[in-house]
Structures are given as structure tokens and as C-alpha cells.
Amino acid sequence: MTNNKPVTIYLIRHGEANAAWDEDPDPGLSEKGKLQSEELKKELTQDLSSSFEAISSPLLRAQETAKPLKESLGFDLNINDTFAEIPSPGISLSERRDWLRGVFNKDVKELEEPQLKWRNSIIQSIKLIQNDTIIFTHFMVINCVVGWISNSRKFVSFHPDNCSITKIKKINGNFEILN
Questions:
Q1: pLDDT tens for each residue of 135-176
Q2: 117, 120, 127, 106: which is closest to 172 by C-alpha?
Q3: Which residue in 19, 21, 38, 40 sits closest to 29, CA to CA?
Q4: Distances (CA, A) of 151 to 28, 31, 145, 146
Q5: What one-character DSSP code corresponds to residue 93?
Q6: CA angle at residue 86 from 59 to 2, to 5 degrees?
Q7: How far apart are CA 138 and CA 80, in angstroms?
Q8: What digits encode the pLDDT tens for the residues 102-120?
Q9: In the chain, at which residue ranges do the beta strands (DSSP E only) sit?
């Protein structure tokens, strides 16, 4: 049965990482990133409903971003690979930055199979959400969702800052970006 009540989805980009994407496959947060996640906790605590679900990418920087809020509110954090960073199979760490720059300028239809499957999985997962949900995730994941909702052909059409909140409303299966 489909739930027709309005649902709010909070897409949280992780705080500043302590290493670049081509330096470490799974960096934690920098000191600035840890401060950002503390500020995020203050902002989200005021906005959340009393009942929500929380999901995180399995990557350390996303989980560390969730930590202050989780410790403050005591919720369960469900780790979900769907919301991990864009897959780059066969791309060495030293080549990742240049590869990613190339992906930035692609049309969604130009994505290769691993990235297209990843994008489609994200969209399907978002469609299935039935309760207010916080998702601690990454720049490219947020771009997948925002681009899909706004019908953008560009793969990257949105530039969320570290620890930014992209709020989405789902009503009767329709999605709207609130901010």
C-alpha cells in the first residue's frame, strides 16, 4: 500500500573531508568538517519531525557527519550502499580527479553503465521512501536526485556545499525541491 501523506526528505552532503577524492578512497572529516557537522546538528534538531528515518552512505565522511546528530537524538543510522559516492570502477586513485571532471560535463544519457545503474538505483530508492527521512550522502548523489526532480539533462546541475541540506517534499508520488 502506498502512503499518501506528505514526506520530507533531507539530503545532507557530508562535511569537508580530510583528503581529496584522488588522495583517499574513504577519508573521514577534517576538523572543519567536524565543526560543520556540529552546526548541522543545531540546524536540523529544530526542523525535524518527531519521527524520521536516518540513512547514511557507508563512506566514513557521511557517517561522521551524522554522528553529532545521532548522539544528540539517539536514532538508528541505517547504512545503505545506494547512497554511496559515484562508482568509478577501473579508475585508479591518481586518475579519479580527471575522470570526475569529465563526468561533471556529461549529459545523463552519456553516462556509462555503472554510473547509470547507480543513478537509477538512487532514484528508485528515493521513490520508495514513505516516512520523513534524512540521508547523509555525497555531492553526486544529491545531483542525481535534484537533476531527476528538475528534469535536467545535465548530470551535474546543482552545487551543494559541505553539510548543506537539500530538502525535498514528496506528496502523492510527486517530488518538489523545497530548497
A1: 999 999 999 999 999 999 999 999 999 999 999 999 999 999
A2: 127
A3: 19
A4: 33, 36, 10, 8
A5: G
A6: 85
A7: 13
A8: 999 999 999 999 999 999 9
A9: 7-13, 53-56, 78-79, 133-137, 165-171, 174-177
